[in-house]
Amino acid sequence: MSAPLSTILPQTAVRGARQATLAAVFERAGPGLHTGRRAHVRVSPAAPGAGILFRRRLKGGQIAEVPALWRHRESQPLCTALRSPDGVLVRTVEHLMAALSAHRIDNALVEIDAEELPIFDGSALPWCAGIRGAGRIEQDAPRRSLRLRRSVAVRMGERSLSVEPCDHLRVSAHLALARFPAMDWTGPVDAATFDRDLAPSRSFGRLKWAVPLKLYSFLTGKPVLRGANLRTTAGIVGSRVVGGMHVPDEPVRHRALDLVGDLALIGHPLLGHVRAAHTGHELNHALVSKLMAEPDAWELV
């Protein structure tokens, strides 16, 4: 079942916009980037107002639930993780969250039987394919978006991130890696643009840093990059990506992809122009936290 035309229209502040969920269930499975353990994920429709809810099935049959909201976010290496009220972790949620946000899916139940969502090839394409295959249906409830009244910005050294008023979500991202020309991407975040420009971009890293991190993971028992290899990430050696880039300027596009997923933890569609320079998960969440702490900077419409 293909998605209706409404899923590929820009995410603008439309009077009378309705919430939406999936029209059917879809499932995906694969190993996680950090744990290396295989996980099975089932993404189902949810009622109006439910938002995105992660439900982790534990050994012994127990269930832990955590809403995909910024206040449940926990800092973890090289990913976005959520901690449930009873202490259970769900990690590497950013690619699925980005795909759901870009496709304007407001309500969904995400069931998982492991700690970490699958990484696949490092891109968001399998999530996008699942969403398109399931289809999207609008619900009998208004869709409220977070619209900026003024700009908000955060900075960490050379890293900077800001958001300013705009009638739709737009991202302008910049990244400079050693031995590479400066990389830039800018565009609206709607389903068509996301699937074409951002979803194919893969998680990336320099191979010279991956080996020490894998050794660290082995020695400490902490799950870091145990599932990382040239099938699940874009490996950088010197001034090249092993096997070539899947899209032009792939690293900066992947930073933009992660940013969209992290912004989705606001819990409402964001209407604003986000400008990012060398951003990453920590800075993304710093912006979300600052924005939420300054309610005079935005309004729900």
UniProtKB/TrEMBL annotation:
Pathway given in the UniProt record: Glycolipid biosynthesis; lipid IV(A) biosynthesis; lipid IV(A) from (3R)-3-hydroxytetradecanoyl-[acyl-carrier-protein] and UDP-N-acetyl-alpha-D-glucosamine: step 2/6
EC number, as in UniProt: 3.5.1.108
Keywords of this entry: Hydrolase, Lipid A biosynthesis, Lipid biosynthesis, Lipid metabolism, Metal-binding, Zinc
Enzyme class: hydrolase
A Gene Ontology cellular-component term: membrane
Listed Pfam families: LpxC (PF03331)
Active site annotation, chain numbering: 281 (proton donor)
Highest taxon in the source lineage: Bacteria
Cofactor(s) it depends on: Zn(2+)
One of the record's GO molecular function terms: UDP-3-O-acyl-N-acetylglucosamine deacetylase activity
Catalyzed chemical reaction(s): a UDP-3-O-[(3R)-3-hydroxyacyl]-N-acetyl-alpha-D-glucosamine + H2O = a UDP-3-O-[(3R)-3-hydroxyacyl]-alpha-D-glucosamine + acetate
GO BP field: lipid A biosynthetic process
Binding site for Zn(2+): 95, 254, 258
PANTHER family given in the database record: UDP-3-O-ACYL-N-ACETYLGLUCOSAMINE DEACETYLASE 1, MITOCHONDRIAL-RELATED (PTHR33694)
Function summary: Catalyzes the hydrolysis of UDP-3-O-myristoyl-N-acetylglucosamine to form UDP-3-O-myristoylglucosamine and acetate, the committed step in lipid A biosynthesis.
Family membership: Belongs to the LpxC family.
Protein name as it appears in the record: UDP-3-O-acyl-N-acetylglucosamine deacetylase
Provenance organism: Methylobacterium hispanicum
